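Wed. Picked up where I left off yesterday with V-type proton ATPase subunit G. The coffee machine is broken again, so keeping this brief.
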Amino acid sequence: MDSLRGQGGIQMLLTAEQEAGRIVSAARTAKLARMKQAKDEAEKEMEEYRSRLEAEYQAQVSGTDQEAAAKRLEDETDGRIKNLIDSGSKVSKEIVKMLIKYVTTTGA
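Structure written out below (tokens, as returned):
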């Protein structure tokens, strides 16, 4: 009778071990699924954050480029105006002398 009890106990232990294995396997599968879901969500959040930062950066860069281009254009224009004024004031003295010479000179 002890041998029957021993075999029944062993069988119970084997069944319990198999059940424990199934429970551990199911827990592993559930854990892997949760980890994959968490990874996917984290990647989605990172992509959204990266996109937002890129958009902010592009907006900042384009604004800076426009401001820099406007400043450069203004500086170039101011420089050209100054050159024209300087050239005009140099030439105007010569033109006045030439006009006075032609007006006062008689063609005899």
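Quick read: The chain has one helix and no strands.
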